[in-house]
Amino acid sequence: MQIPPKSQKGALIRTWLVETVDRLIDCVTALRLRPGPGIAVKETPAGTIISLKEQSGQPRTSGPAAMVCAGAGMRIDNGTASSVYVPGATVSSVPVNGATFTCLAPDEPSGGTSGDTSGGNFIPDWRHGGHSGVIPPDNGSSIPYTAAEEGYIFAWASFDPFKDGLRYRNYAAHVQINGGLMKVAELKLPGEDAYIKANGNRFDRDITEDYSNKIRVEVYDEDAGEWVKMVYSRDYSDDYYDSDEDKYTYFAWYCYNAPGDYKTIYSDEWNIRGGEAVYTKDDSDDETVFSYLTDCEFYPDYYLFAWVNGNTTVYTYSGSIKAGNTSVYIPDERGKFESTYTITETNADNFVVAIGAGIPIPYRKGASIRFLVTADGYPYGTLVNYANPGSPPAVCCLVYEKPSQLNNNENT
């Protein structure tokens, strides 16, 4: 590039002007920006734009390490001659400026159908019975589930405070993996105390008087040679009526899968709160004999929900409460509940339900997993048989382990 000289005295103006303009054009042309290696130039009316070009996929070297410009799904371990992973590729070798990388094709699912466990990112089999296990609800006090293999967790929770008779105010469900919490569902009720009005009286909610028609009793199983705890339900049909005293004196409880002669047992009160004595009955002779068996435990499967006014307690069944069409019940001397009055006013008629279900959560082999479900801080929900559920369980946490599902598919 040569800059034109200044004008000189005595020069022909026409000749000097033509030469100077030509040199100025050559000078401006030489000053224009041009694209080069890795540089892109774009001229616009507003000016010139300079940008970096997109790098090509050609390998380059940097010191002793062999390097590659990896595309999507490709990686180089440690920047040395290790491995390049190319999804969908076949096993081969990729030369990189003299170095050689092993090209590995990870196992990918062969299709998008449920239950495909052919390799890496498998799709769980979501059908009933397709899971590898069930994690029971817990409040954090039990031993966590330890994953034998990698896989997925799927959990859900449905909280219906009216179904629970407004017994709880704060519900929460989380999946905990290695101490990390993933929220599933949560519900918090307002702090106003619930009440109903019936027969001209106001009754306030009293959860301490809620009724469960079940108890838990430990009995001996001779076939297994061990003591087992069984859950018994109230059985009005076998209550014992004492004709001499003209009243019922023993109240029956039944468990169909209890061992031996322990399918029916008795208590001397119908409203069991836990710690009361239970008995066996022997009527093989002329005189019926009740023999002490053990003390029972209260089983918190609430059946009726209590409302109290002074010394009077009435009950409602689970479900939403509506003024004008919901009845209250009073027990007779055997604990059989009979309908009496209709609710005329209540503040417990606002229907609210919380339902939550998370997306499948992947976990690694050896992970420590819990399903934390509580109502007012207490454990909520029970272990369910999801392979054949009678109805959708309120809370459930399912495990889908890759090797287990693969074996199940091979055996079917």
E-strand count: 33
Tell me what portion of residues adopts beta-strand conformation: 35-45%
Largest sheet: 8 strands, antiparallel
State the secondary-structure class.
mainly beta
The value of Rg in angstroms is 39 Å
What ranges have pLDDT less than 50 throughout 5 or more consecutive residues?
58-73, 75-83, 85-91, 105-115
Mean pLDDT: 81
Shape: elongated
Helix content: under 10%
End-to-end distance: 82 Å
Helical stretch tally: 2
Report on the structure:
The protein has 412 residues and is mainly beta. Helices cover 7% and strands 42% of the residues. The protein has two helices and 33 strands. It has helices at 13-31, 402-411; strands at residues 39-44, 47-52, 61-62, 65-66, 83-85, 92-96, 99-104, 133-134, 137-138, 145-146, 151-159, 170-177, 180-188, 195-198, 201-205, 211-212, 214-221, 226-234, 240-242, 247-254, 264-267, 277-282, 289-295, 297-298, 302-309, 312-317, 327-331, 337-346, 354-357, 361-363, 368-375, 378-379, 395-401. Strands 17, 18, 19, 20, 21, 22, 23 and 24 form an eight-stranded antiparallel β-sheet that branches. Strands 14, 15, 16, 25, 26, 27 and 28 form a seven-stranded antiparallel β-sheet that branches. Strand 17 (214-221) and strand 18 (226-234) form a beta hairpin.
